[in-house]
Design brief:
Strand content: 25-35%
Number of strands: 20
Radius of gyration: 29 Å
Low-confidence stretches: none
Helix content: 25-40%
Mean pLDDT: 90
Length: 398
């Protein structure tokens, strides 16, 4: 199953907290340093360190970027050029560039200047580039395929930057979160800046703001710089494997006891053609001891009104009932291959920790049975065996 990451931001998020959480969750610090070193920055421009700290009783990892170059502003084009000139993998360069473009667009909107002319102050400094590149590369090294993020607390009060004092949260942070439609947690949290522009950019560009179904494998805590009393100033990272999440659907049903049987097949065809996931009939006993039919339709929420319209138009029913249901689905995929009997097709079902299972497709097997003269059951047996051999990398896979 795909490896996923969930950032639990109950005390906010910053770039260095993201790096600390990644290292605490199992990313070797030496590997992080090696990836960041692929940026075209002089070795003496910064120093990256990691240490174990306590935050309100929580043990966490604090990653610090000690900047040794003289403070300077960089344009967005200059930062993007440095990322492009790095020796990072292409996917990492693209992700880091997207994060800085989001930062640049937020800064441009705040200051009322074209994005091409905006100068990145704090977020264009060496430590911001290290944070962004380290986060992107660290997630890759941990094998993370999807990132999820909790609601964000924003704090209150004032903070200081190169322009002077500003209200918390920073204007650029708010622009980034507004562009992403990020949810904010109830209450303002403690005084001070809890979510920095760099932290907001990393999480909003790389992640989705929802809590996933997952099988938890590791937890990491990345420490912030402050240690307020009574609240652990840490960013918590959950690492795990994606679980099959339930899919919310609608179950539309009606009881019918006064319709001729031949019409039911037509209704079923119309419903499947409209996009229903499943349609079935159940024999029931209705009032006055009449035998009846329960028509059941499983469909997406978006399709519910169309399903209801078809049933009311094509059946004798006077009313329907609808309810929300959850559908759990196994990972599946179609497989078409050239079997010893000819073109075959199966559905492949996959469950975590188990070998794949296959179900032959009826129509393909029927054609093979008619062409070969073999019983359909024998065709099913051969197609199943050859599909499993192909999936295992056996002779039939070549």
């Amino acid at each position: 199953m795909p490896r996923i990451a969930y950032f639990d931001c109950f005390s906010g998020a910053s770039g260095d907290m993201v790096l600390g959480a990644l290292v605490d969750a199992g990313l070797p610090f030496s590997d992080l340093c090696d990836e960041v070193a692929k940026l075209p920055l002089p070795a003496e421009a910064y120093r990256l360190t990691a240490s174990r700290v306590q935050r309100a009783g929580f043990a966490a990892t604090k990653v610090d970027v000690e900047v040794r170059e003289r403070p300077r502003h960089r344009s967005l084009a200059e930062v993007l050029g440095m990322i492009s000139a790095s020796t990072l993998p292409q996917a990492d360069r693209e992700s880091a560039a997207r994060i800085f473009r989001a930062l640049g667009e937020a800064e441009a909107k705040v200051h009322g200047t074209p994005v091409e002319e905006v100068e990145l102050h704090e977020v264009g400094a060496v430590d911001a580039m290290v944070d962004v590149v380290g986060a992107v590369a660290g997630l890759r090294l941990l094998g993370v395929e999807a990132v999820y993020v909790s609601a964000l607390p924003l704090g209150h009060g004032e903070a200081r930057a190169s322009h002077g004092a500003f209200p918390v949260p920073a204007p650029a942070t708010l622009e980034l979160l507004a562009a992403a439609g990020a949810p904010l947690s109830a209450g303002e949290g403690p005084a001070g800046e809890l979510v920095t522009p760099t932290g907001a950019a990393i999480l909003s560009v790389l992640g989705r703001f929802e809590r996933p179904a997952m099988r938890l494998r590791a937890v990491g805590y990345g420490a912030g710089g402050r240690d307020p009393a009574g609240r652990p100033n840490v960013l918590r990272l959950w690492l795990g494997d994606a679980e099959a999440a339930p899919r919310t659907m609608r179950l539309v049903e009606t009881n019918i006891d006064d319709m001729t049987p031949e019409l039911f097949g037509y209704v079923q065809e119309r419903l499947f053609a409209a996009g229903a996931a499943d349609v079935w009939f159940t024999a029931i006993q209705m009032k006055k001891n009449r035998p009846g039919v329960l028509l059941s339709v499983l469909c997406s929420e978006a399709l519910e009104s169309e399903v209801i319209r078809i049933i009311l138009a094509e059946t004798t029913t006077l009313g329907l009932r609808s309810q929300e249901v959850r559908r759990y689905e196994a990972e599946r995929e179609p497989l078409e291959f050239e079997s010893s009997l000819g073109p075959a097709a199966v559905k492949v079902k996959r469950l975590p920790g188990e070998p794949p299972r296959v179900a032959p497709e009826y129509e393909a097997c029927r054609r093979l049975a008619e062409a070969s003269g073999l019983p359909l059951a024998e065709v099913y047996r051969r197609v199943t065996a050859e599909a499993l051999e192909r999936l295992a990398g056996g002779p039939s896979a070549s």
